[in-house]
């Protein structure tokens, strides 16, 4: 197939001959067939207007000219869906839209049809497009990450934790000039972490002393740099004075050339150049002379009478400074030894106190055990006392109950005695009557109730228990 023509040029399509069919181009004066928006990652096209007798082999023969076909889904009606291997093949298939297809040389209606090719939206195409986009995004993130890692500054080395071994190594590093910066950072970190304790105070003091030992070195370097600066100033002043002297000579040359004897022999252009050069030289000379005078004024303002007196004795001052530094170092060593001695004394006292605490703890342990045993014994005795108190309460309750029963029995006895006395006074009963009363107390009570209804109502028995007691007592009284 020829490539699609640019949109600004008229499209001139040609007849396409195949083995089983022929494709005739549409009328060039007609507008191009309409198509839908292209879906992302589209590899499938819709082909409509196929002849009814068009087989799948004929369709494959026609559209294989556009590219590799992965699948053809033909419908029972006159359309099908064709999926290509690549996206650019779809554009070639769209080019065939509008062609009239004829099978062989037949003019039958079932063997002809006008093709309509359009973009189709397939899930497989969209899924592959999404996978490709995710892959590209992942590669882009990986590339950006690599670029960021290239420009990222290296992370600082981790600070080691404090130990006696590390403290000894750090003290040696603090004494070394090349490793001083690294060691001082570690020491500051240990201070911030709170690693200083009573036991590690001596190690930290020795490290502080090692750091302080660099003071003399730094002071010596400062003095040497000041001397170098003074020498540089002197060299600068001498060089500047030499430059000024040369400028004076140049200006003198220009002045000599501007005199009447020599001036008349120069041309106008030469005179003009000489004037310009003379003015430039004078300006430069004046500027340098002002700079030199300013430097001298600053030195005069900084210097004092003491500086003038001490300048010839500079070497003596350096010796005095060295002696003072040595004395200061000896004083620091003496202080450090005294502090170490105090620390050792404190440690000895702590050890003694700890040993005394150990002995005390053993004695306290035995005392605690004895106290526990005594407490357990007291608890047992308290429990026994409580049980005895409960038993005493029970006995007291039983005694009160017995007393109540005894009082009730006595009251019944008094009632029965009164009853018997009353009966003896009224009747001189016979022995048979007494035996009846002794045999069964309830019959006596019944006869008494019949004889004296008033008294019987007063001495009536209320409960079966009282009646039984009355009968028992009556038997004992009348035997």
From TrEMBL:
Domain RRM: start-end pairs: 43-122
Coiled coil ranges: 327-419
Presence of the UniProt keyword Oxidoreductase in the record: yes
Pfam families tied to this protein: ENOX1, RRM_1
Keywords: Biological rhythms, Cell membrane, Coiled coil, Copper, Electron transport, Membrane, NAD, Oxidoreductase, RNA-binding, Secreted, Transport
MF annotations from Gene Ontology: NADH dehydrogenase activity; protein disulfide isomerase activity; RNA binding
GO cellular component: external side of plasma membrane; extracellular region
InterPro entries: ENOX (IPR038876), ENOX1/2_dom (IPR056611), ENOX_RRM (IPR034140), Nucleotide-bd_a/b_plait_sf (IPR012677), RBD_domain_sf (IPR035979), RRM_dom (IPR000504)
GTP-binding among keywords: no
GO biological process: one example: ultradian rhythm
UniProt subcellular location: Cell membrane; Secreted, Extracellular space
Protein family per UniProt: Belongs to the ENOX family.
Name of this chain's protein: Ecto-NOX disulfide-thiol exchanger 1
Organism the protein comes from: Callorhinchus milii (Ghost shark)
């Amino acid at each position: 197939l020829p490539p699609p023509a640019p949109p600004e040029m008229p499209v001139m399509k040609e007849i396409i001959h195949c083995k089983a069919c022929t494709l005739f181009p549409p009328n060039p004066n007609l507008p191009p067939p309409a198509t839908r928006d292209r879906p992302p990652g589209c590899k499938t096209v819709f082909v409509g207007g196929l002849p009814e007798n068009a087989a799948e082999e004929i369709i494959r023969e026609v559209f294989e000219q556009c590219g590799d076909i992965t699948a053809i889904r033909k419908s029972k009606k006159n359309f099908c869906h064709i999926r290509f291997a690549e996206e650019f093949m779809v554009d070639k298939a769209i080019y065939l839209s509008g062609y009239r297809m004829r099978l062989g040389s037949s003019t039958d209606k079932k063997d002809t049809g006008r093709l309509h090719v359009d973009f189709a939206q397939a899930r497989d195409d969209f899924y592959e497009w999404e996978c490709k986009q995710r892959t590209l995004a992942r590669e882009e993130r990986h590339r950006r990450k690599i670029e960021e890692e290239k420009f990222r500054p290296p992370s600082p080395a981790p600070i080691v934790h404090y130990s006696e071994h590390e403290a000894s190594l750090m003290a040696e590093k603090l004494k070394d000039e090349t490793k001083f910066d690294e060691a001082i950072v570690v020491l500051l970190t240990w201070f911030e972490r709170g690693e200083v304790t009573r036991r590690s105070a001596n190690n930290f003091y020795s490290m502080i002393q090692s750091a302080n030992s660099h003071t003399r070195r730094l002071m010596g370097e400062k003095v040497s740099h000041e001397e170098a600066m003074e020498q540089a100033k002197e060299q600068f002043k001498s060089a500047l004075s030499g430059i000024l002297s040369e400028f004076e000579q140049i200006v003198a040359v220009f002045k000599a050339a501007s005199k009447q004897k020599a001036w008349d022999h120069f041309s106008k252009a030469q005179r003009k150049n000489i004037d310009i050069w003379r003015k430039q030289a004078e300006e430069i000379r004046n500027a340098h002379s002002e700079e030199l005078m300013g430097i001298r004024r600053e030195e005069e303002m900084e210097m004092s009478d003491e500086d003038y007196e001490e300048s010839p004795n500079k070497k003596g001052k350096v010796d005095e400074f060295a002696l003072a530094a040595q004395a200061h170092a000896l004083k620091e060593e003496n202080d450090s030894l005294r502090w170490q001695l105090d620390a050792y004394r404190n440690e000895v006292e702590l050890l003694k106190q700890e040993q005394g605490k150990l002995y005390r703890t053993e004695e306290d342990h035995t005392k605690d055990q004895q106290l526990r045993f005594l407490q357990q014994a007291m608890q047992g005795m308290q429990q026994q006392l409580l049980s005895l108190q409960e038993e005493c309460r029970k006995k007291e309750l039983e005694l009160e109950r017995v007393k109540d029963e005894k009082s009730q029995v006595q009251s019944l006895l008094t009632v029965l005695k009164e009853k018997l006395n009353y009966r003896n006074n009224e009747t001189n009963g016979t022995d048979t009557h007494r035996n009846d009363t002794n045999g069964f107390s309830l019959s006596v009570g019944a006869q008494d109730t019949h004889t004296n209804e008033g008294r019987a109502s007063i001495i009536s028995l209320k409960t079966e228990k009282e009646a039984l007691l009355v009968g028992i007592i009556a038997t004992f009284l009348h035997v």
